[in-house]
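Quick one - first record:
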Amino acid sequence: MSTFIVTGGSSGIGLEIAKTFARAGHNVVLVARDQGRLDLASREIASFGVACETAALDVRDADAVAALIDRLPEVDGVVNNAAGNFAKPTVDLSLNGFRAVVEISLYGTFNFSTAVARRLMAEKKRGAICNIIATYAWTGAPGVAHSAAAKAGMLAFTKSVAREWGPNGIRVNAVAPGFVATDSAVANILSTRGASERMLDMIPLGRFAEAKEIAEAVTFLMSEKADYITGGVLTVDGGRSLGLTMHGQDPAGS
């Protein structure tokens, strides 16, 4: 039994990851900013018969993150899922908007990863880290340049520290999910007419991802089954990032 931290763990993909850990018998620490939502989520996690702690904090606050890691009785790894995103033409994007998204995703990942790594190294203990990125970390995407920049940074960070921390027995990987139609994602990404249909047209498997599919991928990378995998990126996007057809040709040939 391990103890895994999940940032952004009170709802959406983060909560599904935490539930999947709990089903596998792991203890969970949920991190988010809203204590009320954390309380609801922790009751759900506790129903699986595992321990669930909560921490209401901002992942950008390095001191608060370090204090949390120091006070936890056990830590075996972290899933850096906390993120901010919204669709906006880059020329209309404010510096504050850009900064907020980059700091939540990239700085938050740095804060939790380094704090957990320091503790694992001090205890001479193996561990695992999984960073939730996006395929546009390497393809780019109009309208979310702020998030793409943050996720690209997370990707480079993942590969860099995987090489650094491997000798310490700390594995670091990433999962690049396809679009999951959570409430917040629908409100922020699919708010314009026809957006859902246009996005589905770009997915070879013809549907959006389910949160449980992302959670299973994360759980695999954090488990002993992935004990020889580090610095990797597992893409779970239904083939969307594989590219568009040429000249508008139907890939099915119809």
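second record:
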Amino acid sequence: MGTELLAPLDLAFWHLESEAHPMHLGALAVFSPVAGGSEQDVLELLRERAAAVPRLRMRVRDVLLPLGGAAWSTDKGFDVRRHVHRAALPPGDFMAAATSLAGDLMERPIARGLPPWEMYLLESGSGDGPFAVLVKLHHALADGMRAVAIGAGIFDEIAAVATRRATAVRRAPVPPRSWMPGPREVAGLALGRLEEAGRALGVGASVVRASRLVPGGSGALAAGSSGTRRLVTADLDAEAVRRVRRAEGGTANDVLLAVVAGALRRWMTGRGEDLPGDDPRALVPVSRRRPGVAAQNGNRLSAYLLGLPVSEPDARSRLRAVRVAMERNKAAGPLKGAGAVAVLADRLPPLAHRFGAPLAGNAARMLFDLLVTSVPLPRAALSLGGCPLRSLYPMAPLARGQSLAVALSTYGGRVQVGLVADGRALPDLDLLGAAMADELAALQELVGTPPRTLGLVE
């Protein structure tokens, strides 16, 4: 790969970062060991496969033009050992130690002079116990779907496919390409530009209308940022989610959003907080990547804004309120409404991102109170060096002024939840994780399915 300019939204994420607000995505993958394997072998395999992903050799550098812009360029001095590290966990509860260390590591910004990613092999030290891999990718490098595609290169199954494809590409001749737009194509491009500009103006007006003069939220969700991070993981029964969806309609994502809303209500009342007068707003990211279209680098995101109905005491009514609100969002489409604020980033010049990032970061608090995102994973069983993947917990970054981000993915019949929070604002984050399991159990009872607990780990 040579050099390519950062797309506008990538540039926005690059400049939004600060010491207290690192803008990287994360995932904690937990594996079961196999007989005869060693942690040193796993470490070397991680390094070998990460080094084989071209995107992970790219770093960000400033450019003269456009003013304020930046570009991806190949790191000629790339050394994978600067990026893939090992860390020994203390004896005792493996998951408790792994999530505690992962939270600490998520606090630390990624070095900006190198390709912006890191991996950590978290070792139990027992030799026959589980191990984990923590992956950190800067949001400028990829959105959630691209992060999955990049990070998946470490798995046995995806690495083998990638090797076969790379061989086929090297062998296949590349035909010459030449294209000059004709009058119709020029007219079409001009019309497209006008439509994009009109869309951006519409989104901008929606953002202004939706912005709150006084930031919303209350209690911990409105606490100031301390720069600390805490991670809690939870497991929910994916089949239970599907049963609730079949009984109540809507989508599985609607059910999970209702579970988050109910969990927040349980958590707030359990810690003695008054329920907020206005329901907290969630930013729900939506991919703008189209199925069947060749993968594009950089971020292709929009989002919906959703009021989480924590003031509603009935679990079924909360689910129905979420479903109606999400149907309204989808009817409008991911390129309309205040949640599509990322569309505006695509229309701003690089210089505006460089100098306007602090202002934009502070403004996020005026629009939403927390992030709730779903990350799709491959359906096939995955492994690393023959060690089967047990679970994979996604982690989202905290925007400036935010104290909670909820990320969910489905793998192996379970919905795995990664809760990332400001460590000082939410010291009882484990109670929120437990409340998610309780809320799903309540929904199951309402639709006549027996609850089944899959556990919570911190």
